[in-house]
Amino acid sequence: MPIRLLVVDDHPLVRGTLALALGRSALVEVVGVACDGAEAVEAVARLRPEVVLMDLAMPVLDGTEATRRLLALWPRTRVVVLTSAAGGRLEQAALDAGASRILYKDAGIDAVLDAVVAAVTTG
User: Which residue, among 78, 84, 79, 91, has the nearest Cα to 107 in the 3D structure?
Assistant: First the structure.
C-alpha cells in the first residue's frame, strides 16, 4: 500500500512540483494539497493522510501551529517539515510541535521521498 501524503506549501509551483514528483513514486499516493496551515488541518480531517509534507512559513496559519493542531486531533499522522527557513529556532519549534523530521528545500526529491517513507517506517 502506498503512503497517503498531503503536500502543504503556499507557493503553487513548489506545491505542484512536489505533488507531481512524489506522486510518480510507487511508494506514495498524493491524496491532496493545501496552500496554508489552516487548509492543511481541514484537509487532514477530510483525507486522513499518513504523512503531511509541511512548509513552515505560510500565511493564515504557519506550519508549526498547523502541526500542533493537527497532531492534537490525529496523533498518528506524521509531519515532515520541508522549509527554506534556516534557523535553529524555527526547526526546534516545529520539532517541539511534533514534526518527525526537518528537511530544507534544497534537498533532492529522493531525500524528500526517503524522509516521507522513514516517517512512517521509523516514526
Answer: 84
